[in-house]
Specification:
Helix content is 31%, strand content 19%. By secondary structure, the protein is α+β, with helices and mostly antiparallel strands. The radius of gyration is 19 Å and the shape is globular. It starts with 15 loop residues before the first helix and ends in a 5-residue tail after the last strand.
Length: 331
């Protein structure tokens, strides 16, 4: 891995959604369940099935109420640099980026309750698949503390109400947290393992390595930033194909290539700058509401496919966003 020195990249343009979030910060009562949770699905004929339209309306409500979302250019800055190579193996010829992805993050955001509780979980796992995970009482308490903070957020309250209305989740908050624990934190054996070595949370938010050479999962920007800061991530550039839009430093979704420790991720896709509660709420909605592994949703500036793979119908195998296109709106 070659050393990458951070240099600042300044970008401007704060979206109207961020402005709405700022209004919510100043008036928390406005984030309570209200007209913003009504189903306001896309109006245009776009080939979406009705269930996708309904989930799009919910995704928009979650987005509008994600009061802890960071603002690009203000709370964080990224430097996209060049396009990553096409090779599926670790090779310096692939490298389209001479510097880190993140040039600045205001770490004061990490002092907020859900961020703090989320970050405390990131060092609780062995990254190698096939190595059984041992959950200590302290780690289990950290999992529950995170869920306790999560269910108090506006986004998770909206998701919970919707799931209760659809008879997909229990109304009792304690029972709902038990359901979330099973989906995200209950251990299971990933392919090729003889004993439980993985969980939805570890795979999606922490990342895993297979045979030490391939990175699997790892779809979270906070973990990416923290690991890059420690020198464990080598950002190789953004990923695009003929059908995907060019990434934008002012937007909140991107596909990228990177190496982590000794492993290599040829292509990954992540939200950037969103809160942990937004991702948990959106992915949980897709997991419980749709049997499909790909769910098309539209919200804010984005047309997105949420990939959500079930494991034994009880757990999340993997889940992440894939940007289809930007909607024709002005940020």
């Amino acid at each position: 891995m070659h050393l990458k020195v951070q240099t600042p990249t300044f970008i401007f343009g704060i979206g109207r959604q961020a402005e709405a979030a700022e209004r919510h910060r100043k008036n928390p009562k406005s984030t309570q369940l209200s007209r913003s949770t009504e189903y306001r699905g896309p109006n245009k004929e776009d080939g979406m099935v009705e269930s996708d339209r309904e989930l799009s309306a919910m995704a928009q409500a979650l987005w509008d109420n994600d009061v802890n979302r960071l603002q690009p250019g203000k709370d964080y800055r990224i430097s996209l640099q060049g396009k990553a190579g096409e090779m599926a193996v670790l090779n310096d010829d692939n490298d389209g980026a001479g510097y880190p992805l993140f040039t600045f993050v205001d770490e004061n955001i990490f002092k907020k309750e859900t961020f703090l509780a989320f970050i405390s979980l990131l060092d609780n796992y062995v990254s190698a698949t096939g190595e059984p995970e041992i959950v200590t009482p302290e780690e289990e308490a950290e999992n529950h503390k995170f869920l306790d903070s999560l269910v108090q957020t506006p986004t998770m309250k909206i998701a919970h109400k919707y799931l209760v209305d659809k008879k997909l989740s229990p109304e009792n908050e304690t029972d709902f947290k038990k359901q979330l624990y099973t989906i995200w934190f209950e251990l299971y054996a990933r392919k090729g393992a003889s004993r439980p070595d993985s969980s939805g949370f570890e795979h999606v938010f922490v990342g895993e390595t297979r045979r030490g050479r391939t990175v699997i999962g790892f779809h979270n920007w906070i973990q990416l930033y923290l690991q890059e800061k420690l020198g464990h991530i080598d950002y190789k550039g953004y990923s695009v194909n003929a059908n995907s839009p060019q990434p934008d430093e002012n937007k909140h979704i991107m596909a990228l290539q990177f190496s982590w420790k000794e492993g290599f991720k040829p292509k990954g896709s992540i939200f950037i700058g969103v809160s942990p509660e937004f991702e948990f709420a959106l992915y949980t909605l897709c997991f419980l509401s749709s049997p499909n592994e790909r769910v098309k949703v539209q919200f804010s500036l984005y047309d997105v496919e949420i990939v959500c793979v079930h494991h034994n119908q009880k757990h999340i195998g993997t889940t992440y966003p894939m940007l289809i296109r930007y909607q024709n709106l002005h940020q």
